[in-house]
Structure formats: C-alpha cells, structure tokens
C-alpha cells in the first residue's frame, strides 16, 4: 500500500529531491496546419478547432478584439491553436491570451511546459518514472493536491491523462493493450510524446496561465466586446451517460449551467461549446438563443476521425455565439 510519495519505489524526496536517480529542485526559473496538443483531455475539442476558429476569427475581426480568454481551459486546444485575422489590412494576432483552469494539476503542467528549464526537468522526470499502472493510479489521486510540488504535480497530471483512455483520468482506464504488441506500441507512443514536450514550450510563451474559477474573469471581461471569451464546460448533465457523471476534475451540476447562462446573457463576444440540452427536452440553454445568440450545429465528431457527420443516435456538437 502506498502511504506517501516517499514510500513509492524507494523514492526519497527532499524539496522534491532525488527521484529515481534524478535531482529536481522545487521552483526556480532560469505551426502551419499542424495543431498543437500538449495533453489529451476527455471532452477536448481537438477535432473541432478549425471550425471553432472560424467563429473566433469572425468575432475578432468584427469587434476588433485584442484579447482571448479560454475560461475553462482543460487541454487548451483552442488557445494553443488560435487563428490569425486581418485588421486594417494587416495580419493580426491577439495581443493578450489567457488560459484559465480550475484544476491545479493542469495549470502546473502548462506552467512547466511553458518554462524552458522546467520543461526539460519535466521531460527527464517523466522518462525516469516510466509507464507503471500502480504509479498511474497514485498520480490520479495526488496530481492536484496542494502539498504536491509543482513539477511532480505536472508529471502526475501528464501521466494520468496520457496513460488513460481518451484522457479521462479514470483508474479503470489504464491503457494496457490487449496484446504484448499493443502494450509495446502504447509504451513507444507514450515516450515519443514525452520526448516532444520541449517543442511545445514556445507555444505557451505568451499565454497567461491562471488557476481559478471562471467567474471572476467573466465578471471582469464579460461585457467587453473587444475580449473574446471561449467556454467549454463539462457537458450539461442531462446530455450525458447518467452512470458516468464523475469524469471531469470539476463536475458541473445543472444549476451550474443555469448560472452560466444567466451570466452570459450579460456578456458579449463569447462562444459556448457543448451538446444541446434541448435535444433531451431541457430548455436551460434556450434563453441564450432568445437573447440573440446564434446556435451552430457542428455535427458529430466520431472517435478516430477528423470528419463530421450527423446520425440519428449520435450526439451532435453545438456552438452558441454572441458577438
């Protein structure tokens, strides 16, 4: 039984300390068509990025926006792959970009990847830790705890996502592989992605990372038309498998979605992603449409393909957009 970090595999920690032969100091600083991805995350919008970008660009050009905020950051798929747009005849990019995320582990991961020195330490640590199911389970329980140092929290967060099915970070979802050959492929791919982490440092260089609730940012910038707000909360509970309502690090109840809708009614220049509760005869998002928000059906995004298609029994992804 694991009773603490120190008890696992003979790990001796001082500060962070000596971790399987590597000394890690606590703290200290010293794309074309390719989409940047640092971590896979359940409910991420990797395949939807090109579609969402069209509407981000539309709002930015019309309102002459200077700032982009991803309010519930998750895997950061949108903020890492923002479009450039035209303003006054010149190609323009957002002058300010903010990634906001409630989960401490994700913010620690992004902060470490952003820092040229810390990302090297993270890469080395992950390679030393290896691929281990017992440590994977331990990582899930401890990745976001306040007493876990930043670098170790970042490593645990990466392991929990990248060693789980679809990045859902569930203990029963460890990627073992059905055969020895499958297992070897999973292991090879896992280490290949770890070795590429350092290449993502520049993608985060000009992104502000905030660990907190979305509400203060929405209150501060919500009514400002020159600030694009993108929010991708956990899917409305009525649209989800009722036996799997504990997938996200921070789950949202129906009341949380209703509160978000009330807040968005007072805001401009925003995009909301999700399934449409109205398909399940729930009118919680309907006030947005009545207030003038445009609803866009993006179609069904099937696992393992970049195409979209609509089928009667598949869940369609939607955007609600207010300029």
Considering the chains and any ligands shown, give keywords for the structure:
12 strands; eight-stranded mixed sheet; alpha/beta; 32% helix; single chain; 323 residues; Rossmann fold; 9 helices; globular; two-stranded antiparallel ribbon; 2 domains
Quickly describe the structure.
The chain has 323 residues and is of the alpha/beta class.
Count, helices: 9
* Strands in their spatial order, largest beta sheet: 7-6-3-8-9-12-10-11
**What's the CATH class label of the largest domain?**
Alpha Beta
In terms of structural class, how would the helical and strand content be classed? alpha/beta
CATH evolutionary superfamily of the largest domain: Vaccinia Virus protein VP39
Domain count: 2
Q: What gyration radius follows from the Cα positions, in whole Å?
A: 20 Å
Biggest sheet overview: 8 strands, mixed
CATH topology of the largest domain: Rossmann fold
Q: What is the number of strand segments?
A: 12
What amount of the residues lies in strands? 15-25%
Which consecutive residue ranges, at least 5 long each, have pLDDT under 50? 9-32, 303-313
CATH architecture of the largest domain: 3-Layer(aba) Sandwich
Head-to-tail CA distance between termini: 54 Å
**Which H/E pattern describes the elements?**
EEHEEEEHHHHHEHEHEHEEE
Instruction: Report helical residue fraction.
Output: 25-40%
Mean pLDDT: 85
Task: Using the alpha-carbon principal axes, give the shape.
Answer: globular
Protein name: site-specific DNA-methyltransferase (adenine-specific)
GO molecular function: S-adenosyl-L-methionine binding; sequence-specific DNA binding; site-specific DNA-methyltransferase (adenine-specific) activity
Pfam family, one: MethyltransfD12
Catalytic activity: a 2'-deoxyadenosine in DNA + S-adenosyl-L-methionine = an N(6)-methyl-2'-deoxyadenosine in DNA + S-adenosyl-L-homocysteine + H(+)
């Amino acid at each position: 039984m694991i009773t603490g970090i120190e008890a696992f595999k003979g790990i001796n920690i001082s500060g962070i300390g000596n971790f399987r032969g590597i000394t890690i100091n606590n703290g200290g600083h010293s794309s074309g068509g390719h989409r940047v991805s640092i971590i896979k995350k359940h409910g991420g919008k990797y395949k939807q990025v090109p579609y969402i970008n069209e509407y981000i660009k539309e709002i930015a050009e019309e309102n002459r926006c200077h700032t982009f905020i991803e309010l519930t950051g998750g895997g950061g798929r949108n903020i890492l792959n923002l479009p450039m747009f035209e303003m006054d005849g010149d190609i323009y990019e957002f002058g300010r970009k903010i990634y906001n995320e409630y989960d401490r582990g994700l913010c620690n991961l992004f902060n470490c990847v952003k820092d040229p020195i810390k990302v090297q330490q993270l890469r080395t640590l992950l390679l030393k830790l290896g691929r281990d199911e017992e440590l994977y389970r331990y990582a899930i329980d401890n990745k976001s705890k306040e007493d876990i140092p930043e670098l170790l929290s970042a490593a645990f967060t990466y392991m929990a996502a990248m060693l789980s099915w679809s990045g859902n970070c569930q203990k029963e979802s460890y990627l073992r592989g059905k055969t020895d050959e499958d297992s070897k492929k999973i292991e090879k791919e896992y280490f290949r992605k770890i070795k590429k982490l350092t290449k993502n440092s520049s993608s985060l260089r000009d992104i502000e990372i905030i660990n907190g609730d979305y509400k203060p940012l929405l209150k501060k910038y919500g009514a400002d038309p020159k600030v694009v707000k993108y929010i991708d909360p956990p899917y409305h509970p009525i649209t989800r498998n009722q036996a799997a309502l504990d997938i996200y690090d921070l789950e949202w109840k129906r009341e949380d979605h209703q509160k978000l809708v009330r807040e968005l009614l007072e805001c401009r220049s925003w995009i909301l992603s999700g399934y449409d509760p109205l398909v399940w005869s729930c009118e919680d998002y309907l006030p947005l449409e009545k207030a003038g928000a445009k609803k866009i059906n993006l179609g069904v995004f099937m696992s393992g393909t970049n195409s979209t298609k609509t089928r009667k029994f598949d869940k369609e992804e939607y955007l609600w957009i207010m300029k």
